[in-house]
Amino acid sequence: MDQLIPDYLADLLDGVRDNNEGELPTYIPILAEANPDWLGVTLCTMDGNLHSAGDDDVEFTIQSVSKPFAYALALQTLGLDAVSEVVGMEPSGEAFNAMSLEEEGNRPDNPMINAGAITVNQIINGTGSTVEDRVEVIREFFSRLAGRELEVDEVAVEGEMAGADRNLSLAHMLRSFDVIADEAHDAVLSYTRQCSIKVTIKDLAVMAATLANGGVQPVTGERLLDEEVCHQSLAVMASCGMYDAAGRWMARVGIPAKSGVSGAVIGMLPGQLGAATLSPRIDVNGNSARGVKIFEALSKDMGMHLMSTENRAGSQAVRSITHNGEETIVKVQGLVNFTGAESILRVLSEYDFEDGRVVLDVSNLIESNKMGRRMIKEAMRRLRDEGHDIAVIDPDSELKHRLMDDGEQIPLKK
Ligand code: GLN
């Protein structure tokens, strides 16, 4: 039984192993020397459980997979308004290293292309920061996301800097429009050092899972980001993470994701898991050729697509209504989100409660969200206002503090 998920992941890798599409990138020497056969996949759940197959402890440079995390760090420390002054959130429809800025205004289109990522890197630790201090703040933050000390690969930095003409010209362009303040060389060095932090797919799966988990690192339990920050970073990845192939990716895989030129892809199923793959051959869009195939299969097999209409909730949310002396006991079940709560409210409003106590039994809830909880507490408040005595059966504290909108607490059934 233990082997079920790793066996499935191993089969998944076997399904793409013979695919030789794509090329190793040559413009960064260390990537040209990578083993093209590396192949691995890791999943990390919201409880911090890791499931892997293949090359899950090979270290490689994070490259563009760093972009959503650096964006999240900037959002967390500076806020969305300040970050949005310097970078947009629209897909550019161009290659990752295109010389692109928004048509109106001078902002780079989004933080997932190089122009945007160089800009985001610049504002971390304040625009007056030295390169060294800035990269240290980023390295430190990535280490907490991964749950271990990560390091910069100096050989990778040196090799990339020796041929960084494209990124240097991007930095000159950004500086000429006053988007960044650093000298072009420093801006590119700072960004390249961010891209050269070494990770494994196990690290990336945990980092991705932290975003999917709303900012709490699932293994260490540390809160590193606010929910809204994760939401924003995931949303921008959904439309811009896979560069020019983002539309096709959204249709076929259907989850926010980010790729990098070292061959990694991360994908996040919000509230459920973080996933990472490694396979170094890169397709024409700059994405790992086999990585894309693995995610397509994962999404299909596991029903991960966010637009899937299979995940219906709540049509049978009231399980039973029974009587016990003076009490009417309403047992609810399943997933109580807006739709689930709506169906409970409908049943409650149509039911002819006799005088006496109404007891809501939530012990069979699988899960609820804020909206769902608020709606059922509000329904209880109205029943109380209509003259009923109210109580809940809530052994797992599903309703948290049980506070209604008027500040009163629904009593537990003794
Ligand atoms: N450091 C690389 C670059 O700037 C990252 C590119 C990528 O991973 N797509 O070109």
Automatic annotation (TrEMBL):
One GO BP annotation of this record: glutamate biosynthetic process
Keyword Acetylation on entry: yes
Domain STAS: 329-414
PROSITE patterns per UniProt: STAS (PS50801)
Similarity comment: Belongs to the glutaminase family.
Assembly and interaction partners: Homotetramer.
Coiled-coil spans in chain: none
Protein name: Glutaminase
One example GO MF annotation: glutaminase activity
Residues where substrate binds: 64, 114, 160, 167, 191, 243, 261
HAMAP family per the UniProt record, alphabetical: Glutaminase
Keyword terms of this UniProt record: Acetylation, Hydrolase
EC numbers, comma separated: 3.5.1.2
Catalytic reaction annotation: L-glutamine + H2O = L-glutamate + NH4(+)
UniProt keyword DNA repair present: no
